[in-house]
Every structure is written in C-alpha cells, then in structure tokens.
Amino acid sequence: MRWSQALIPTLREVPKDAEIPSHQLLLRAGLIRPLAAGVYTFLPLGFRVLKKIERIVREEMDRAGALEVLMPALHPREIWEQTGRATTLDEILFKVKDRSDRAFVLGPTHEEIVTTLAAAEIRSYKQLPKNIYQIQTKFRDEPRPRFGLIRVKEFIMKDAYSFDVDEAGADRSYQAMYEAYKIIFARCGLRTIDVEAHSGAMGGSSSHEFMVVSPAGEDRVACCATCGYAANLEKATSRVIGPTSRPVPPEERVAHPAKFATPGVRTIEDLTKPPFNVPAERQIKTLVYVLDGKITLLLVHGCDELNEAKIPAATARPAHPDEIRAALGALPGSLGAVGVRQIPVIADATLRGATGMTTGANENEFHVRGVDVERDITVAQWVDLRMVQTGEGCPKCDGILRVDSAIEVGHVFKLGTKYSVALGANYLDEKGASRPMIMGCYGIGVSRCVAAIVEQCHDEKGIVWPRSVAPYEVAVLPLNINHGPTMEVAEEIYRELLDAGVEAILDDRPDRPGVKFNDADLIGFPVRVTVGEKSLAKGGVEVKARCETEAALVPPVQAVAVIREKLAV
Ligand SMILES: [Zn+2]
Known about the structure:
This protein has 569 residues and is an alpha+beta fold. It contains 15 helices and 31 strands.
C-alpha cells in the first residue's frame, strides 16, 4: 500500500472522552472512528487487524472440528420468549418491529437461534457431536458505552455451540474449545489467564473466562502466582481468615453489648473517624436483602465487600428502604442483627467467633459495641459471602492472592440441557429413545480483542502490534520523496518485500521525517525501514523493529533479509 493512496487519519491530540490507552491509540492511529456512543467504524488499518484476528480464530476453530455458519442478526422475538430470555435479558435487547408489526430482536447472542437450528436438522445420535460457530455482529443495549471497543452496543463476536449425546461428550467438546482458545489468544499475541467464572445469565453449570490483565479492565480476577489458581472475583475464595487473624484487645471483651449514641454516623467509614475510632474490621456490615422472596440479613466485616454471587439463594436483591424500615425499624446506617429473631441472619464465615465487634442498634443514630457474634446474634447460616482481597491466602496452596482488573476476551460455558429442553432440540439414541442434546457455548469478543491487544502492547509513542495481527508488517519510510536515489532505493525495497509476501506500506507522503517517524511509531508497524540521504551516504538504510531502540544500518541489497529476520523474532 502506498500511504498517499491510503486512508489513515492519524491524530496528534488525545481525543476528549478517550480514557484508556486502547481507546486513545485506536482513535489517534486512525484505526477506528465513532458513529455514535458505543458504535464504531473500522477504518482500513483497523479492519485489517480485525480480519487478521478473525482469520486466526477461524483457522483454530476449523482445526478443532467446528463448522462455520452465518446466522441472522434479526431474530423473531417469540423464539426468545420460549427460553424466557426475552424477559431476563430485556434490558440489553434491541427491539424492532417489521412493517406488519411483527416483533424482532437484534441478536445479543445466539443460543436460541442455534438450538432452533439443531432441533430442526439433527435427529439421531449418529449426527452427533456437532460444534457450530460463526463470526458475526452482535447487539447489546449497553447503558453506558465506554472505553472505546471494550464496552459497546455493537460488536463482532465469534460464538460457537456444541451439541453432544452425553456429559462425557460435552466435556470433550468443552475441553477442545478450551485448548483452541489458548492457542488463539497466544497466536494473537495476547497473554491471557483463564479463570473459573460464575455462569450468570447463560445458565450453565461450569465455565471459564479468558482474561487479559489490564488496569482498563472492568472485571476483577484473583490470582495466585505460586500455584496458578485464578478465579473471577465473583467466584474467588480465599483461605478463611478466622477471628484469630483479627485479634481483639482484651479490654474490648465485655459481658454484654452496650448501646452508644452515634449522631450523624451513616457509614462504616463515619464510624472509623473520631470520636468513635472503630476500625472497619471491628465493625459488622449489615445488609438487608430479599432472598427468594424473604427478607434476610447478610453480615460481613465492615472492611469486606459482599459478593452477591455467593448468596445462597436462587434469587437475591437488595431490600427497598421501606422494606428495611418495616423489618427493622431503622434506616441503613444504624442497622444490626443483635437480638433479631424474626428475620433470618446469614453471616460470613470469617465472622464466626469474632468478639468485641460494633454494629448498628436498629435505632437511628445508635450503635452497639462489645458484640460477640456467636453469643449475641442468632445466625442461621455461616457461609462465604465476601469478595476476596489482595493479600489473602490462596485456597489451593500456601501462596497469597492478588486481585487485578482484567478484560474478558473469551468465555467457555457448559450449558447442559437448558436450551435444548426449552426449544425441543432432541435426538434419538441407539434404542430409539428421545433425549435432549447436551450443549456448550463458547464466545470470543473479536473486536474487543483489538482493544485488549493494544492495552497489552503499547508504549508512550503508540501501539506495538504483534506481527500476527499488525495492519502492515513493515513501513518503508523514504525521508525525502524529491530525492531521486532515496525514492529508487525505497521503491526497490518496497517491491522486494511485496514479492517476498511481506505486507508493506510505503510512506510516499511529501511530509517531514518527524511526521513519518511519529505516525509509524503511533500505528506500531513491527518493522520500520528508513531511507535517507545521510544513511545512503554511509552505504545503507536503517532497519528497526518497533520494540528496539537502535536502528541497524544495512546495505539496501540485504535489507529484505534483515527485515524478515526481525519479523521472525
Ligand atoms: Zn495458590
């Protein structure tokens, strides 16, 4: 490609509202442009990157035996009603109607559609297993699009769905995808960790997420560097820290709890300040939830965060203020479980045996101190309710956990028969009995991978693309296009690169050298070849990999060989 004929609108300034490196750099390097909040155009360079990621995904999916199809983005709403997800996913569904008022949704995922397909086309165990995938546009009505390609309303996804006759087969399908994913991300130049995940809205029984650790990530993962344990924070556990690790000074142990006035105290933090000075770890945080329709108190240490995914109930939601007042007679800020008998109390296991604790008195602007949890509170259930924090013990070994932000780029789920039962995807077994197919589903956020790679591969000058996904592998920079010998050498190297099958771009713009260097570094071509009068006078051209600080002076005839060596690294 000749730069003068390309469409590469680079920007010098960091665009407003672009908060994270990938968003800033993809805009500045001219790879993407917004059309609306959370809706993007891929410009030619960005589209090349996207296509390369797609190719890697396609090759590995095909190698794993999956079959590529293309399903519609426009789905009749009644199919979504059959699984109940027209309701449960209502908030993220884009709804449209056709001219005769028939309701459709724009697909946010394709379990319903692929299961409908399998129900129609697969009859016998002899046709199984099958794994069907596509690379296609998805729509989700994201309430707060942010972070460029990370949180959007429209995106490209690879989604695969496996159908098996039994659990053993489903396990094999799951494992095959898990292995393929590791290869896909490695080929894209992404360092991922795979974590145990909570299955959430997909309704599966087991799942793993592939995460890219990045400060820009919206998910949080807990990892152990010692044994490799890694889990989504929703699912992470740690070695339970009992009361012994948070010892109580003897003077705080009292015969019975004592009420004291706490005017103006609304939060855990308020109580940590003078004149009260109660550390958060000596406070009990009382949360009022409605679990399966029943008001329940959930207790964690004041320094801990409740993990909703760990609540032992099918449905759980925070109680409304009027429900709280009706149940406890006080406002949030003064709530506690001491002496509460009519309402069930579920306490985090780390509170077991804790003494000298402070909690709300269920009387506005009063608290109680000297609480011995097991003595003074009627606890119905002790369970792990808390979010793991950095520095806690690994549940699998003696190591210490670290909690990091991460971007989810892939997800593998075991779905079981949730969709096949709802949509009648049955097969006949050897004995002629009808059974539901066992399913799995496997997603990769293809357009999100573009951003994740940039998050991981950039420096202060710009993007540093891994060769496998770079928009072009080599940029040839003639510094003065009006200097005959410079252009001759540059054109010759450019032609040789194309002949050798190397993807090259020739910067034939009449711009200053500084502009060309800055743009090449900003876009992040893996190798740059500079052709200038000075280096030619010294007998060569300058070849430099994007990640190197020094360029090598190479005779023009050897340039292509040296470039190919650098690309092979
Ligand atoms: Zn460990």
